[in-house]
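Re: export button greyed out
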Amino acid sequence: MTRKLNIAVIGTGRIGSMHTANLVRRIPEANLVAICDIRLDVAQVVADDLGIQRVVQDYHELLADPTVEAVLIAASTNAHAMIIKDAARAGKHIFCEKPLALDLRDIDEALDAVKRSNVKLQVGFNRRFDKSFKRVRQITASGELGKPCILRITNRDPEVPALEFMRVSGGMFLDMSIHDLDMARFQIGEVEEIYAMGTVLIEPALKEFGDLDTTIITLKFVDGTIGVIDNSRQAVYGYDQQLEVFCLKGTAFANNEIEDTVVKGSRQGFQSALLPYFFMQRYAECYVDEVRQFIECVCEDKPTPVTGEDGRMAVVLGHAAWKSYHENRPVKISEIASPR
Amino acid sequence: MTRKLNIAVIGTGRIGSMHTANLVRRIPEANLVAICDIRLDVAQVVADDLGIQRVVQDYHELLADPTVEAVLIAASTNAHAMIIKDAARAGKHIFCEKPLALDLRDIDEALDAVKRSNVKLQVGFNRRFDKSFKRVRQITASGELGKPCILRITNRDPEVPALEFMRVSGGMFLDMSIHDLDMARFQIGEVEEIYAMGTVLIEPALKEFGDLDTTIITLKFVDGTIGVIDNSRQAVYGYDQQLEVFCLKGTAFANNEIEDTVVKGSRQGFQSALLPYFFMQRYAECYVDEVRQFIECVCEDKPTPVTGEDGRMAVVLGHAAWKSYHENRPVKISEIASPR
Amino acid sequence: MTRKLNIAVIGTGRIGSMHTANLVRRIPEANLVAICDIRLDVAQVVADDLGIQRVVQDYHELLADPTVEAVLIAASTNAHAMIIKDAARAGKHIFCEKPLALDLRDIDEALDAVKRSNVKLQVGFNRRFDKSFKRVRQITASGELGKPCILRITNRDPEVPALEFMRVSGGMFLDMSIHDLDMARFQIGEVEEIYAMGTVLIEPALKEFGDLDTTIITLKFVDGTIGVIDNSRQAVYGYDQQLEVFCLKGTAFANNEIEDTVVKGSRQGFQSALLPYFFMQRYAECYVDEVRQFIECVCEDKPTPVTGEDGRMAVVLGHAAWKSYHENRPVKISEIASPR
Amino acid sequence: MTRKLNIAVIGTGRIGSMHTANLVRRIPEANLVAICDIRLDVAQVVADDLGIQRVVQDYHELLADPTVEAVLIAASTNAHAMIIKDAARAGKHIFCEKPLALDLRDIDEALDAVKRSNVKLQVGFNRRFDKSFKRVRQITASGELGKPCILRITNRDPEVPALEFMRVSGGMFLDMSIHDLDMARFQIGEVEEIYAMGTVLIEPALKEFGDLDTTIITLKFVDGTIGVIDNSRQAVYGYDQQLEVFCLKGTAFANNEIEDTVVKGSRQGFQSALLPYFFMQRYAECYVDEVRQFIECVCEDKPTPVTGEDGRMAVVLGHAAWKSYHENRPVKISEIASPR
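Workaround output, generated via the alternate export path:
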């Protein structure tokens, strides 16, 4: 039997508390040592609920503890890079939620620290672990459908998040589309040029701080594939998550999952269920799988499946999308940054 | 180019007028010589609508006409056997709507006449010409799925027909289930035993003359396959037509067609269209194809795809179902009649 | 926060070990006190895997322990009734896997003991907890579709179980169809008459001990609804689980779940995934939910959602199906037993 | 009963001969007076096949014939504008295949002639008559889903047309995307700006004359909606025709039609049929309906459902797409032309 990894969670908000529950209940390979949140009361509620013994307020305390082997960072985005740097210097392996940071210099400094300390880093792009998206990748990677021609992603949230969150989120392209930009790299490879358009049709208050709620991004990939991502902050029928890779010899697409399989027939036609409400429902298994794989990579000293460079390039693409939108022109990725 | 077949239609009610329109507009291989109905005014309306020159009241006039090569019989059921006999004696090839007759002796006399005159006879089991049901047959006949184990047919009308029609129709098993009993023979082969159950849940007036509106028939086939047919006179969402042949190495099923492919997503879930309303819509192409094939068989002197024996055995199975229902026990087909 | 229920598991084979893992990992309302198996080594493996401290060989030891409040019985079927009686006398609440027993007298004695001791009893008909089957029930129970007319259930295993198991299982109708007979009661209500037909098309060795692998059961319900269940021991495309309740004003059907949502289009058409392999995958969440609800019913002193009478009537219906098959005639349920 | 319209067909190639067959067999409101093709032998084959008496080589002969009330123009694209002008001057009503012309000045001259002569003109954008696309329009126009946010169209041919045709077709955006650009106007309204990207991944020979085979067009509409069209010249699984209008309160999408409804389940999963092969199959009914509506508009003196301006604007949008592609920047429609 394999050993258990001693891990601590930093940040116990919505995502952090879910990761914590997974570590306690669903990931037997993990030994959750402690949880940490600057809002100690928030962390304490999570600890009480899950029967966790150790709760700390200052993450440096965890980094100083030699029994802690790895940290899962789910603090607010603006603290990610700093904690990564500190954790790397303390020799802890790191699983960090997306995005690594909004500022590319912060990301580069963090990745430098990781490199110097030679610790593992995995970024929380959960969708790479979805069985259907993985299956699409597997089909196209097998070559049976020939060269990919068109990538098509639909990603629509069920409702607009809280405005206070939106204000600091990096906006549509860096908060929401970033998942699709990473998925685009996962499915096809590096992007050469981006053109982004967007508008505010759902939540007028977004205009105050220049954010968008309805966007389309087109992509030219280095390998010649072209692609399109459409995003919306409000799909009233549930969390709309579709993906297609259309190829020379066929196509592979991942349809939406659905809440149940019941169809009701009546004089009004046939009615079926809503989509799963949001990411916590739709990608529940992915959140478990990504952390299990992270632990396996640490324990067996293998490269992580979502690297720091993956985390960085998704942010680069997000910035390219914003630049394209603001200047209303296609933007080369090289205008933002080169691959490290 | 192949020659055209001179054909006349006898009976211009709902089905007959549809066949007539098909012969005029959609079947270039046919030369419609005349139409006939004892209700001359009914036939005249059809003739006016389609620009048909010759309308007669007495079908014997058509049988006496040497230019008429074939007749399509769509008169009322109780006249079918008599017209077949007369037409056969007159040397005309015959396409006859289902059922051949309700009385087996009438059928046998008619089939004897056909045999003696050596004319072609095809019975109007239109569903054998449906592309999806044919495709299921083709798949299972290829042997790729191994031996058929379970046949499952769902056949539900959209609404209860007029009571005056129901009274003389032969009832649920001989009017409605007869299509499924024929389809069972088409898909699997001869039936050995039938058990039928039924009830009146939709139209209480049916009880007056012993008819049913909701039935289930189970079948044991000679080759060991078992099967089930469920029927209803009222599916408010449209004409429900499903078929499955479940086999040792897989299954082949024909789903319902749908009026259009639009899906509407809203807070109530996803809504799609009704099924096609009824047989005139759902099997529109089958009515064309069956007559085209009949004409081809006559012109090229080939056996017809739905024989007199097929028409007879479907009626035998219908009677077996009624006997089973009345005696509430499984009934051997040999209790009703043997194959000719 | 609610208290935890002290529960022990008796029988740690395939189903028992799954329940044990659920109790440890997924049901925080449970405090798993111990596990028990007469094959001590089998239980020990489960205990080691899940970090369980107490393992016993003789279940009487658990019944004598005053800290044990409830037992989950997943021992072999022939031991169910005896353990229920013993547990009831010891004042333990009982969750028992299906079937309660194959012999109706054993069941009646067990239910008598439960009644006298006034403990809770829940039977493990897991499918009642499936979200889609529950949703169908909810739709029809709301009355919006009017009176149910036809119940249609398809239940097909992916492959034939081991013959040594089949030999003692009670056979097709008591081992496999029993789930559907219970579902029939759950969806519609009490059954009045059954007709069952069956054959051996998949595994010839079943003939040695009179079992079947391909069956169709038709049902007449007390309320006038009619129904049909088709069963097979081998659906090579996965565990086929469909249900329809067709009503006067519409229909509600539960389609199969599917392993992933990917569709691959190519020159061969469109290909989608297999069904979930078997019940452990398909009904994984039901196994959790049924036990959570059992615990809630014990802790809050409410009636259990699947009662002893439910467990008994499913066995009665199974025996009626066997009698019908052997005598090839419809059998009244009252020929087997009356409701208690 | 309404009178029949005397109509002649000019151009009897693939599309023209299909229109001719429809006029003869499926459109009783039409009286086909004559057909015309500069390739007299081609027209004669069509005439022989359909039993048409009058065949002419020079369309002026038809325009000089006072019994001809209307012409259906299906000649080669480069002749459309000239024939329209001539027909308008001769006082004939005009149904013209798409595109009106490739040159905007030619179109404007033709439309001027139509206006002066006060004849009816309808352009052959057949997809506007598709029941599913019409249904989407009807749903969104009803307002029940709120304001449209994102239009998404997928249009993919089954295989690359002949290169000699491609050379003179106007290229991807004016030959193929033009249908989608018209559909965009039909579903949402006027377009303000276009960005088009494209590549050659299927047929390298297209590079010789600067054509594309794989393209994505993004659209900003005057009303604020944004949209995307993806096109490919080769979808090996059939003619891929999807449309979605995603709105504030839900979505309406038109799925692909499928050749038959059979699904085959096996160890490889579930397999369903190909899509209809191409436009002649997929839009067969639309070709009938558009001409029936044209005839009705002429006979009842109503505006045609697809106007000259519709034909013109689709070409304007196609030119905007080409300009955007060549200059790799978003292009305002006003850079090409203003609405008339």
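DSSP finds twelve helices and 15 strands in chain B. The button fix ships in the next patch.
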